[in-house]
Specification:
Number of domains: 3
CATH class of the largest domain: Mainly Beta
Number of strands: 28
Structural class: mainly beta
Shape: elongated
Strand order of the largest sheet: 1-8-5-10-3
Helix content: under 10%
Order of helices and strands: EHEEEEEEEEEEEEEEEEEEEEEEEEEEE
Distance between the termini: 44 Å
Amino acid sequence: MIERYIKGDSMKKCLIAVAIIAITAVTFTACSKGASKTQTSEGPQALTAAAAQSQSSPEDETELRIGSSVSGIAGRDQKITYNLRSTEEGLLIIQIESEIQIWLEVYDDQQFITSSIDDYGNFYPRIAFITHPDTAYLLEVRSYVRSADGAFRITAAHQAVTPLISGSYSGFIESRQEYWFSAHISRNGILDIHTTGDTDTILEAYNENFELLADDDDSGEDYNAQIKMDVRSGQILYFRLTALAYTVGGDSGPYEINASVSDYPTPIRLAPGRTHDAYIENGGEHWYSAAITEGDHLTVETMGSTDTILTAYNMNRYAIDENDDYEDLNARIRITISDGSQFGTYIFKLRSHNSGNYRILASIDFAL
């Protein structure tokens, strides 16, 4: 299982985020509704030939139309500029196919910028973001290595996004292609999104600014992907679904994707100074609560040989802290009232990287 969380400042002026994917062929394929054409790499020689016939000049701004591609030569200490105008609202993917490492920058009409470079060695920078009708963007391309020149091809294409209105969707997934879904969260709780079927799937979750929140490969049944995450009413989330592409010919087949939001479980109340013993399965979740009505610090910690993770929530169910491996494999969270936290009851979610027994303790102390 692969699961990670990335925190950062929201990009408020432009809904742009970077998603860099190492792939062996460049494909832009939508879901069954409104599918885009597929464009495939033909190798460095084809890139060089195309660039020689239609080379973008560093001094000029070239128009890049959605659904088309433009070739060029990225030179040392030179920037090639492209104008792009979105004609509709939706997900736009900008992809560069190159024989050298390329740096790609995108500006919106307010000069907000994001950058992308592929670190996986296949030299395919890739940016995805939500566009709006009649919105102009400025793209700048340059060689990442100042001592290197090389041919490249830049492509812009709209990608279909399927809303998970009923909570589920069935289809056929092709290897090396991507499928996007959206979900408008209507209540607070725990979101469970997963696939079913015989295809080895991979899921990624993004917020509305296209910042990666979580991803997963095999946490579901057999080789299916599954993501569980805390959500709040009013959130807009996007999910990228792909099939495993590392085997010969990749993996393809029918699939079903399901999403549902469940209420938070009733937590077990931890009495200060008393321990609670339990057994947790790998990937499981246990919920606890602890109250502080006096004192300066509320500390919740685990003990034992099980690798635990703790997440703390305030009274409004907003995550305020998370800890993994404070001491050995145990987790520890300390809430300080003088830091702005309030007296009251806090919720703690306990997860584990493996199955095993653990002990959890809540304690309250006073500052000296």
